[in-house]
Design brief:
- The structure is a homohexamer of 319-residue chains.
- The longest helix of chain A is centred in the C-terminal third of the chain and has 23 residues.
- The two termini of chain A are 32 Å apart.
- Helix content of chain A is 38%, strand content 19%.
- In chain A, strands 1-2-3-5-4 form a 5-stranded mixed beta barrel.
- In chain A, helix 7 runs antiparallel to helix 8.
- With 319 residues, chain A is an alpha+beta fold.
- Chain A is elongated.
- Chains in contact: A-B, A-C, A-E, A-F, B-C, B-D, B-F, C-D, C-E, D-E, D-F, E-F.
- At the A-C interface, helix 6 of A face strand 4 of C.
Chain lengths: 319, 319, 319, 319, 319, 319
């Protein structure tokens, strides 16, 4: 009986530990008994789990998003690991566990990141730009603390959106030093606003887990939603029309290619730079995630989000 | 000395007639004399014209958009016709000419078309939809009377935008009869709103001539501008959120392909139909315009706006 | 024991009803007994079914396309429903059931549709056009009554081809009213001929079920086959060469894009319109089919034939 | 005064020689005098030529396609050579010149090539295949003697079509030796028929000069026309249906890519080989034509028909 | 009990025969017993095989690449055949079997093919070209005898690389007869070198079975590796720079399209021809392989390596 | 008489100043007199110039690349400015002008830039990496001082290659601070080597002006040439194989897309970052160059190297 994390599970392991209930279905087996078909998760991954032959009503005890205590055995079924559960209960106060410790999260605390991100807002010189950004950040502070940057793929972790913007802001700052033709106000504002409507494009709970795209997210997408938010807030704070349009243009063009959602291409250098800042951060994140599961000297399998490329982890790689 | 229209000009013609001054440049010839390099236009076309050796100050008499009386000779220079002007003056009241008669226009009067278009607005049953459309049409009535639907290409004529929407509405009406799965309210509103922000995407004068794209037009384009206008007006009239979003979605998706400006594809049948109504009207317009200049039994040159296709005008064609 | 339709089946249901035998394989189980692996169908869908441990020779009793009476239980196996059969027999006269009631069919009777379609043939004014179309419809009347328009996807139902053309003809009629530059003779003939060789491109039985593409269908496809048929029939009825070529051109170009099978693009407005009539009818059909299985307020899964788009069914949708 | 060929013309040359009149326009100069604007050609190229200040009626003496005797001077105008003519007359019998010597032609006589091509027809073993090909070659013998394979580009010379097929047949013969899985009957027939309808796709005179595409050529193209011809002739000679279809399939698929005119791709190895035989011959022809104008050690300009590639002519090149 | 080859296996067969062990995994079943999950192969194909309930240590007896003697039963599991093994041992001397008879191989012996290939090397006239090729063939003789031309797909058999080049050389020889503008030295050398670094791009054992791509193969690929090898060897044999570059250019460009690995396109006719020789040989090989498994009159399933085309095997096909 | 720079020329200006002779052709006018057709350049641009009616032999006095003293008049011919020269002579010692002041150059001196670039070489920790880079920089020091980074477009100025690498190194340094998963040794080496063979891909004189691509440049391109140079130098300095391959891989993949010359995509994060560093520097350079010629509030014309986008120069732009 041990408390391994999911990434380390092997067939035959006897496990007793805490997990998040990510998905839950009640099904009926061939012998006509109800059973629970679940997805359990911790910081390191997910696994399919079954609790066979449940009592009537037992299925109503549990809801997705809860932290549960589980005992069971890891088995191999059709080449995949499966977790056969023998005991399952909700966590209780005396367990002294915090659900947040069981979800994948950004490497810094949301509070730290928020503070650093806000320091960039405060560094914006142009008043119209600052007012627009500050008002939006004021509106969205609460969801921003936990929002992921995606349903799956890059930065799909708790507070992933803050983390994505934080690293882009740091890069923006140093590159504005190298490329002095750039107006840092615009670059910072572009970073701060480009994905802000991901908060309303996806329904995520306070564990940073996205259950689905929202109605607005499906019908318009976060780019168009972001343009509309800037328009509205700029009118509210009485910002100059050109300034508002520059920010809307930066959000509209940051995916660059029409087939990725940008119907116009960047017409100012700050919008061009925003696109590359975004690409770099997403790619570095995804590559690190793949490297984490590789041994030195190996090639990975083709990685979907990296255009099906394989990665190589050389002896010169850095952690 | 005759008053042929431009489309009929031949080298050697002596012309005396009225034309619109579409473009005007003051240049200096190799013998160091100032001259006027102009584009003159009437309903049938355009021609380059020169007035040599002008007096100092004479160039300030004229502005683009004015109707002028011209006397001169048509010559051939490097395989193109050119109009060598000997007399040029502004029209005066006693000439009894109206500038509107000298610009290409839709085949119906703006007033007639506006009335028929508004009858569709009034036929909308859903109050939210009707209020949004009615309010926007109220705001834009004046520019709508003359606005063209393009800078060049399809419906680039005075009141061309009204004409484009009118024909689409007529098609929408009859196709809603065939495809009863469609909600006519949405289809009519989609047609009425899909290109409405072309009014603010291009600067056109009251002759329906576009001088250039606007700042907003270049930075966002009429599709995104249209989405924002619906958002704003829907809030103003207190429309239901889903209704507002459906209309925004229809405008956003009506170009269908990302590379033509639509970052999302239609998710409701009414948006799908809107796209085809738009394509059909544009293509019929452009094909008729090419046919007008062809003889029966001939193939046209490759036509740029028709993907460089040639057209064939058979003995079975209809006028 | 009930007689639910397939679309309503749930695990655990005890069913006794009639179904079409769409596919039939004799297999041997791991305990070396023969069993029947079948696909059963009704108007609402299909389901995999097993009849275990059959007697020698019993498998020869049944053939695909037959209507059978079945008793059995619905079970869940690897997340799919399966129909475990306990009794299976052919229908008999006293069952008083008609196989046609058990296959998906167009919403009107073939006879009604045929009559309306033929009324368009009769409305064609040009004699050459009318003779060509009339002769082809005379040749193909019988298979036309049941032919589907596809193996799967749009109008893949009994008499689906007639239904597809009928709706296109109705649209053609009303759009020729809006776009008077179109010659209705050509548009009607284009609709009537564009897919006519689907009859010979696919082998379909008189239930409108396609078993496979034909040799000619695979080697040339219905577009090229259609061009050849018009050529031959035009010579037989002594039609004018230009007329024959215009009809061949319309059929050749109706898929518009080379990668969808049209090596030339439309050079006459009637061919252009034919393409859009075809697209509209296919898309409306496919969208309605998806809507039928959706609840209001939901998004569908990505739909393969709609370029993997999701649909949304709003509160404003129409049945 | 010399008789240089056009490819050798330099500014300042005084020329007296024979040329083909490829194009002829009557124009009016700025001093209101008529003049002839011509294109003259010989085996080596073309040049623009002017005969100034012609007498009334003189322009009616000449027609395109005629061989004329010319005296004049080569000049440079706007970086292009131009031929200023002082004397121009039709050739007469005593000039003892043959128009055929003045047009670009295949390197062998049409008669020789025809004989060798027909020897391949005779080598076909399968009677149906042989009968189809033989009948078509019988029908088209006369135009085949002079027809070019294109309006411009590869094999756009007198008897170029015969030359194209001849080289493909020679390659076909030797490659059928290497790839014994191929049926030579099908490969030969494929070569012999693949471009045969170019004869009717373009109007060419007996100098092998194409004036324009035909009506059928524009509306359907030589591939579809070829499929129809095989269909018709196969019925006339009573050939087996499968055989006829294989030949039609080969012609239909020989351009391979939909965007180059083939709506289906090869489904038999002989059709696959036909495509490569065609590509090889076209590319070798075009490359040799470019090499002819290059010096050793040089790179060419980008060549349009070779996807805008430059060629390099090394010291190892062969003539 | 019989000794059928894998291609002929049917559910229920009792088999006793020799097979190559292509893959081997030790797994644990649901009842916690170890078992072997293997891929067995012979000249005709591969099959999944299981040996249940093995003794501890038994799994160490076997290694991939070995020839084993097997007894067992063919079963059907989830629509695939599976081989349930009851006895398994390594072959012994007295079995008198040779592993080479159990792997798919080129149709000629490596020695015969090598000799014919080398005769082309010897026929090269230019000393620099010959020295470069001869030296590389001297270096790579040993691996060349068994190397396949691919991991899967065309010529993925023992000595497949030699076979691929041999057929290309034969075609090259005869086409240089038809196209005398080609320098045979360059064409032969191009064929001999174009894929030579496949030897180092993939790790293959002496059965011609590729286990994986090499590090260099993944990082650069055989095209770039080939360019580097020619560069190095050309310097070693003191070849002329232009000559070395022409050979490097041919290798670099032989895949033609950038997306298939060629960053430049052919600039000399010999490189153009090399591309087509390569395509023809690959396509003929792949088509024959599909034909081998088809019956006359049938269409194949879509074939992945042939762009998902189906093939048709007519009554006129040749073996 | 003034000494304006070319960018400020207006028709009618009388100019006396120094210019670089960028191109020179001797031509013959219509009155059969020789004249010089030249391109003159200074730091600000280029202009076409004519010296009419030269004496025999005068044309031999001048060579491209020389600095000349010119007197003449600016005229307008067919909408372009032209420089009609009346006096032309070579510069002499007493003119006290330096040719370098008349060519567009990087904004820093080559020496300064070289020193900073070399400081990055010295900062490389891994000995193999450092040895490879140091040796190559030792070999190429001289041409590196003046080499441009392109024939036209980005960094096509004297010492442009050094400038391009310098800015990329500065960005690399700061981004390695943000993305600590990157090995700075590899990123620096990647930047230092990625374009190094542009030195041998283009023939440039010591003014940094490219006359043409070299033979090797055309046949292979700087990417493949760079891979070969690293291979050779790595062997010479005895570097580890994996290290050499990583550097070759970075150079090979830095254009990212096959159609831009990279047959493989990045498999390590440092190669991915190299691509973005390259893109950012090229785009910032090109955008600044366009901005330099724009007024605030204006849109540019479509810019070819920026995918034909227009730029907008707002009131918030920075110099």
């Amino acid at each position: 009986m041990n408390n391994k994390q999911i990434a380390e599970f092997k067939a035959g392991d006897e496990i007793q530990s805490f997990f998040i209930l990510r998905a839950l279905n009640i099904k009926t087996s061939s012998n006509n008994k109800k059973y629970l078909d679940m997805t359990l998760a911790d910081k390191t991954g997910e696994i399919n789990a079954k609790l066979w032959n449940i009592e009537n009503g037992e299925e109503n005890t549990f809801q997705t998003g809860q932290l549960v205590k589980v005992r069971g055995t890891v088995t191999l079924w059709q080449n995949s690991l499966q977790f056969k559960i023998t005991k399952l209960r909700l966590t209780e106060e005396e367990d002294q566990v915090d659900v947040v410790d069981y979800v994948p999260s950004a490497p810094y605390s949301a509070e730290e990141m928020y503070e650093e991100v806000m320091s960039f807002v405060n560094r914006i010189v142009n008043n119209d730009v600052k007012n627009i950004v500050a008002k939006i950040y004021d509106m969205y502070k609460e969801p921003l603390m936990t929002a992921p940057a995606a349903k799956s793929n890059h930065h799909a972790v708790r507070s992933g959106l803050l983390y994505h913007m934080l690293r882009m802001l740091r890069s923006a700052e140093v590159l504005c030093g190298v490329y002095q033709n750039l107006n840092p106000d615009l670059v910072y504002a572009g970073v701060l606003l480009h994905d802000i409507e991901k908060i309303n494009e996806m329904n995520s709970d306070d564990l940073g887990i996205v259950s689905e795209y929202t109605f607005d997210g499906q019908m318009l997408g976060h780019i168009i939603m972001g343009v509309k938010t800037i328009e509205r807030v700029a009118l509210e704070v009485g910002a100059d029309h050109e300034t508002s349009m520059l920010l809307q243009h930066m959000v509209l063009t940051h995916h660059y290619e029409p087939e990725y959602g940008s119907p116009k291409k960047p017409m100012i250098p700050e919008a061009e730079m925003l696109h590359y800042l975004d690409m770099i951060d997403a790619r570095m994140y995804d590559m690190c995630r793949v490297y984490d599961q590789m041994d030195e000297g190996d090639f990975s399998d083709p990685v979907f989000v990296l255009d099906r490329r394989r990665l190589y982890k050389s002896s010169m790689h850095k952690e």
